[in-house]
Amino acid sequence: MAGYLERLTEGLPAGWAGFLRDWDRTLRSGNYPETTRYNYLLAASQLGHYVQGQAAEIEAGDAALDPTEVTRAHVEFFQAWMVRTRSASTALNKHKALQQFFKWLRDAEEEIDRSPMDRVKQPKTAKKLVPIIHEQDTARILGACKGKSFIQLRDEAIIRLYSNTGARLSEVGNLTLDDIDMNTDSVRYHGKGSKDRRVRFGSRTGRALSRYLRARARHKGAALPDLWLADRGVQKLAPNGIKLMLKRRGRAAGVAHVHAHRWRHTFAHEWKRAGGDSGDLMLLLGWESDDMPRHYGASAAAVRAQETHLRMGIGESV
Hints:
- The protein is mainly alpha-helical.
- It folds into two domains: about 5-110, DNA polymerase, domain 1 (Orthogonal Bundle), CATH 1.10.150; about 135-305, hpI Integrase, Chain A, CATH 1.10.443.10.
- Helix content is about 55%, strand content about 5%.
- The chain contains 14 helices and three strands.
- It has a three-stranded antiparallel beta sheet with strand order 1-2-3, with no helix packed on it.
- A hairpin with a 4-residue loop joins strand 1 (about 180) and strand 2.
- The chain is globular.
- The termini are far apart.
């Protein structure tokens, strides 16, 4: 995502572009992760482009040139357009990012007295159970990585870490060599809000990591601090590259919709299904809110309910 600010501000009026550059500086000084900065700025950029492009239809007025002139109506038009052209969940993500943007304009910059988001309702989204990845599907995906080439060893190690630890895409994707401790079979993840945690991994994951590290030591990019290296050249394999790799490996294995978050849900599913403590799960997965175990463990709750139903045999005695 290097150089994202230039791309996001391209074509925007000077007023919008200037505020986005200033907000990016504030986010950087606050040590916000790059992915968070990008998603925040993308939402504000999309709003700016929308207001500019639909100025006549939505009576944008000065808002087409200056975000401090954006009204509740402009945001609602934009949000409805997002629901129609993308999805309600995408619109919800934009809503949350824009809340932060206008809060910054109000509190930090003192450019507005009231945020236009104050009375904009969040779009309602359907609550869907994220499908877990069954063990046989994970085995098929790992089978697609079988081999001794650099890329095969790398991809197996990455997939095993996701499956074994339930980490976020960016947490595994941004690991450095120093984050892996082969003496204690543990990995240090840099979670949201700059909160670090150390998680143990199993013997199979450890073996896959050891094999990859030996191959990595012979790679031309071995001197780089990043754990994951691209197959060619002297450069890291970024989280977005891992995202694409997972989809590619999934297609090769005949498993649809493969992404890192499904292993995170699977980890929580299996933990809750086995009767694991929610507090311990929060520590392992880097959560602070009590809502997260309930959200991620919803699929396990459904399975437990079905299993209990079958065991009780209600209605089967007549």
